[in-house]
Amino acid sequence: MKKYFIETFGCQMNEFDSERISWLLEKENYLSVQKPEEADVIIINTCAVREKAKNKLYGHIGNLRTLKTSNPDLMICIGGCSAQNLKEKILKDFPYVDIIFGTHNISQLPELILKRKSIKKSICEVKENGFDYVPGNFKNTFPFKAYVPVSHGCNNFCTYCIVPYVRGREISIKPAEIIEDIKRLADNGVVEIMLLGQNVNSYGKDFEKPYSFSELLAEVAKIKEIRRIRFMTSHPKDLSQNLIDVIAQNFNIMNHIHLPLQSGSNKILKLMNRNYTKEKYLEIIDNIKSKISDCSITTDIITGFPGEERNDFEHTLDVVNKVRFNRAFTFIYSKRDGTAACNMEDNISIKEKKEWFKELLVIQNKISLEENMKLVDRNYEVLVEGEGSKGLLEGRLENNCVVNFEGNKNLIGKFVNINIASAKSFYLKGKIIKINDDKKNHL
Ligand code: SAH
Ligand code: SF4
Ligand code: F3S
Hints:
By secondary structure, the protein is α/β, with parallel strands linked by helices. It has helices at residues 12-27, 51-63, 65-70, 81-86, 88-93, 109-118, 163-167, 175-187, 213-221, 241-249, 266-271, 278-291, 310-323, 350-373; strands at residues 3-8, 31-32, 41-46, 75-80, 99-101, 123-125, 145-149, 151-152, 171-172, 192-196, 228-232, 256-258, 296-303, 327-332, 379-387, 393-397, 402-405, 415-423, 428-436.
């Protein structure tokens, strides 16, 4: 039997694409292996969002050279966003790579592997646009939870971001196809789904008869076997009142919203082409907090965007202090060739950017800890998702907080009630007080 090894970098969308690749290869009787040295085919599904992602990839492909030398029949395939971005350049730097395939060429991978076997040359197959996903054609990694894409690509062109260039224009998947996917997953025992899109709030705007993300969510919430519905990513400019209402009205839509802020400065938000202001962002947060009880809010923030000054950074800190995010994913601005911000004047030294970045981290970590401390001594329903560190089990609260606790591995995929005993900035510790093995919500 032929064996494949797949490694995934980047976001949930890339993880989902790897599930598609697994499905396609397993249909051709490939077996998944956990070590690259055991594989006949190695696939690296790459990210391009920051320069670091590219450097990591280059180090990684370099490491595969020894494997290829000891096994010349080994097939090395590079896909994903850096493949889409760099194309033949990867082959120039690493001639022993066999196949480069773009983000719109995933379904061709099995035939490209066959083709590569019959010709002597490496292959680079990268379409500029398109959409080759067939609903249902993916292998979900966990039996109890699954990703379900609602759209592909992005039309926003935030000026720092490479995603619209490597993922193409936004294309929404038809509601009936999404619902069918979810029903099938539910029939197979899946209890949690994560709806995926670069900007889920603009879902359906490309249909002839417009259909909104909140309408879709309300439809999905009717599938009661799905006990936990999550989604990402929301863009503040398109987040509607209806969406907040639908979340508030449906107990199986989780009380967590990931709402990237990027910056708290109106000047920088404008330069970033984000299409909202600090005031608008704070208004949305107030609205969410008043309508959805105990809603956790997480975010993404970039520091050191071209033109950002101390005063702008302080606006970001102001939002961080006002909103009190449960968690923030923070990044130092990374220049991406081809994006609009590439040509913007950037006078701030990397040293200063790093200092601001550290300052932000200290403040945010303290807030994360204080927010998590509020959960201590309370009871929450948790879906047990796997094994964590030190032999403990790991699961998530409805609000997406991670909790570690003692318990038997056979609880994985089940719901338990947990009493929260202690908190750190990024996770909680707790104790099982009850195992919920029926199909009802218990708290
Ligand atoms: N579609 C999502 C996620 C995009 S990428 C959204 O709109 O939020 C995930 C995060 O990476 C972004 O939210 C942003 O904070 C960060 N990011 C994107 N491009 C970046 C760049 N050039 N430099 C630093 N961070 C970047
Ligand atoms: Fe990038 Fe902006 Fe699109 Fe998100 S919304 S993927 S940050 S361009
Ligand atoms: Fe995701 Fe990275 Fe591509 S964040 S969309 S894998 S550039």
